[in-house]
């Protein structure tokens, strides 16, 4: 090995009889950081490795659309408002499928999608179990349960303000979907306090179903075609300054 001045590598003398465990006699190999070269291909794969997870929003929005369509028919009286028949759809279709979509969005680091899907999947599961309790509970338990559900809906009404405001800077379709959910929560709260009957909630459930169906179809076609096909509408408002938007566009 060369003894040049820029070399900082010291080798341990293999012929030495000194004790290796003795820190005073042990010699170290010092490699400067500038001498450690990683292959460029390895760095690119570590830093910019693409996600292998599929876009989950078509699954979550389709489950929301089908569930809301089924519930809207029950609110309009088209189908029997049977609690036993609603529980499987509410828990397994809307709750379970939206939960899966939220978990996948979390792995994809989609904060908005994971927050909305996971929060509302838990709401549908809770409502499903509450309906199950109503079916087999006493009249007093049902009244107390309805009071607790109304308080929960008030909490979700406050929570939904944040996704509604965020959707302003995403696209029009998502904003109107979140707006219909906000109005649905408001009407359901009034329904539990016996202000309205079930039909106003059925109207908003139907609107949510149609908008969610459109979103799921648009997103599915976009992922397959590699670009937008069905319009989602431009964002209605941006919280960023114009200079930051121009930098992102460039």
TrEMBL record:
It is found in: Membrane. InterPro entries: Gpr1/Fun34/SatP-like, SatP. Coiled coil: none annotated. The chain crosses the membrane at residues 59-78, 84-104, 111-134, 146-166, 173-193, 199-217. It is a multi-pass membrane protein. Keywords: Membrane, Transmembrane, Transmembrane helix. The keyword Cell inner membrane does not apply. Its main location: membrane. Residues 1-24 are annotated as: Disordered. Belongs to the acetate uptake transporter (AceTr) (TC 2.A.96) family. This is Inner membrane protein yaah. It comes from Anaeramoeba flamelloides. The lineage of its organism: Eukaryota, Metamonada, Anaeramoebidae, Anaeramoeba.
